[in-house]
Amino acid sequence: MTPTLSIIIPALNEAKSIDHTLQSARASVRATDLNVELIVVDGGSTDDTISLAKPLADQVIESPRGRARQMNTGAATAQGKYLLFLHADTTLPADAGKQLEVVFTRKSAWGRFDVKISGQSRMLPVVAFMMNTRSRLTGIATGDQAMFVRRDLFESIGRFADQPLMEDIELSKRLIEQARPVCLKGPVQTSGRRWESRGVWRTIALMWRLRWRYWRGESADQLAKEYHSWV
């Protein structure tokens, strides 16, 4: 039977979280009629990511490193009518399958979930609120929000751009030209580690600055150099 949904998880040294991510993804669709496949795309992990993922995923494949490349590799292998791109440190809500069934019944083009950021800082709920509100207003989704898209549409607009940063923003811009996203309340829960490790306010300032410069036309390659030198 052709899968209804392919969940594609790009991973790189995610041994601490990959088993929980896969287990929660499987559990979130168990009480539905969805036929789901889980695909982990590893970008060269040197920890136990692959060995932990193999018993839990339908496929574990390898790809050149880079989130966009890994997700495109997974999409090329996937058989689902819809594709959902899930970060390895992000978990789907327990009723994700039921929320998605409604979307698929309506044959919606694409969408994403609201996000909740886990961590100790009191600012993280504020960050999540800002992300969700901005997304609803602009139609731009981020990878942390577990973007999903009809497979034929994803292929027709050229998949993720082969760039090292802002691949989610770039995909959203092309998808918006076809349809506004469905914004599911979710929420998915993502790790706040990158926010807390370098300071929440500093991370907010960095991400807004990079997005502004990308909107102004700076290359993703140049912005990625700055991002990776900071993180």
Jot down its keywords:
single chain, alpha/beta, eight-stranded mixed sheet, 10 helices, 8 strands, Trfase_2_rSAM/seldom_assoc, transferase, glycosyltransferase, cell membrane, membrane
SSE blueprint and pairings:
Blueprint lengths: L4 E7 L6 H11 L7 E7 L6 H5 L5 E4 L4 H11 L4 E4 L4 E2 L4 H10 L4 E9 L5 H15 L9 E3 H6 L10 H10 L5 E10 L1 H6 L1 H16 L4 H11 L1
Parallel strand pairs: 1-2, 1-4, 2-3, 6-8
Antiparallel strand pairs: 4-7, 5-8, 6-7
Subcellular location: Cell membrane
InterPro entries: Glyco_trans_2-like, Nucleotide-diphossugar_trans, Trfase_2_rSAM/seldom_assoc
Protein name: TIGR04283 family arsenosugar biosynthesis glycosyltransferase
Termini distance? 43 Å
CATH class: Alpha Beta
Oligomer: single chain
Overall outline: globular
Series of secondary-structure elements, N-terminal to C-terminal? EHEHEHEEHEHEHHEHHH
- Percent of sequence in beta strands: 15-25%
> If you average the pLDDT, what whole number results?
93
CATH superfamily: Spore Coat Polysaccharide Biosynthesis Protein SpsA, Chain A
Number of domains: 1
Largest sheet: 8 strands, mixed
What is the correct CATH architecture?
Alpha-Beta Complex
Q: Which structural category fits the helices and strands?
A: alpha/beta
> Helical element count?
10
Subcellular location: Cell membrane
Protein name: TIGR04283 family arsenosugar biosynthesis glycosyltransferase
InterPro entries: Glyco_trans_2-like, Nucleotide-diphossugar_trans, Trfase_2_rSAM/seldom_assoc
Organism: Orrella daihaiensis
